[in-house]
Amino acid sequence: MKRALCVVLLAVLPTPVLADTVLHKERSLYSNIVVKQHGSTICLLFSIRRDQRNQSCIDTDRPKRMVFVYTRMTLAGLLFVDDPKNILVVGLGGGTLPVAFTELFPHTHVDSIEIDPAVTEVARRFFGFRSGPRLEVHTQDARVWSRRAALKDKRYDLIILDAFNGEYIPEHLMTREFLTDIRSLLADGATLIANTFSVSDLYDHESVTYKDVFGSFINFKVPESGNRMIVVPGVELSDDEIDEKAEALNRQLAPYGVPIKRYARVMANQRGRKPDWKTDARILTDQYSPANLLQAN
Amino acid sequence: MHPSFIRVPLPIPQTIITRSVHLSAFNLYTAAVVLLIYALAFTGGFVIMSLELLGGRILAPYFGSSIYVWGSIITVFMLSLSLGYLLGGRWSVHRPSLIRFASIFVGGALLMYPLILVAEPIMEWIFARVEDPRFGSLLAASALFILPTVVLGMISPYSVRLLVKAVEQSGQVAGHLYFVSTLGSALGTLMTSFYLVLWFEINTILMLLTGALAFMFILAVLGHRKAPQLWADSTVGGQK
Lengths: 297, 240
What we know:
heterodimer, A: Rossmann fold, 7-stranded mixed beta sheet, 10 helices, 34% helix, B: mainly alpha, Growth Hormone, Chain: A, disordered N terminus, disordered C terminus
């Protein structure tokens, strides 16, 4: 009788879909951190909801290869950068981007800002992330850090904004005032790349806010990713020059899985396009930044 | 409709006339004042929590929105409220009146309004001097919110004093007042976090809160001025 019941129960219970191994689970000060392994891929996730997004992944067989399209898209910003000396990355995740930068540019110094010390620890334990004199992690709120950096007259040749884990948006990192602080950290001819939201009302609000602070930007989207990259190029390049640069970067970026030539074409075509957002949307400011409410709309 | 219909005076229902005759002026006044005091306590609760939530928004550009920033804000509000309770209770001992109660509201409004102008320079000053964002946020929250919150904290004990007529009912009166003012706090929290920040800028919300305090001050002053007339007006009660 008992056995029969077991059989029935087993039949009724949903069978797990190709079980991921959970390597680590942690409720940190800022989010729920889960590290999962699926085959040779290890991923860092920031919530345990069903529609959870993989935040950062690494393929242990090919550690350099970027698993996510959006990280590959971020590297495409290198089209507008020549041998950067100082790079700022806001948001660490698994640390794949800062590490890639130190590998690509042997003489560069990377400052990485991460609010959650637990994330840095997870990156170290599971993603082989190592900080050092050339790659520093600052455990701080990006707003506080950038304000201090601006006071100290710090300058960067490349700035990456990637501080959103998808679950809760730090609203004070969406505002015109924050972006103005970030702009003041850009050296002459420096490039900025921001990973932003591409759905919901927030797309419109974020677009007009970046437009207000940085003027025109390249609205970089590819069909295979739900992310939208805002690229503020530090140099004006013609279509031919972009293709030339892509050709030069192609070999360097190949191990990371970045189809740079295709991306270069997409970006070149994006330039001069009419905005596909509502240009009369309200600019996000320190006075008005209900980003989480707007995202829900 | 026939135009002459408009000129026909509306009949006054008999029940209203008889009721007002039976109600004494004293009861009318008392009922109005009790209602007014509850409304004042409700507004106080609303404004305190709305301000506390805005506090997080105000500090974030300088000190982030980490857990310790919220820790600073909540600590400062709790300390200020406890001090306010002490002061309000103490003050209610000396000749309590509606006009003195009203002055708490105008005091709160006057101390809150300057936040619009001085919050930025104060935070900038502290940010430049205190490196640690934990103590920076604690200092900033203290500088910005202690004064208005202490004054707003005086509302609760003072309103208890105004409503309690006999020792036996003091617990019940206090219970009613906590109920109403905490309900105000709940609504202030909900409205601010769900809607007000979506509709308005922070400074606009601060102005609205100041306006609400000022409006309640005026209502209380009117109530106070009406009181002697109501007491003296014996036409209704005199017909009894």
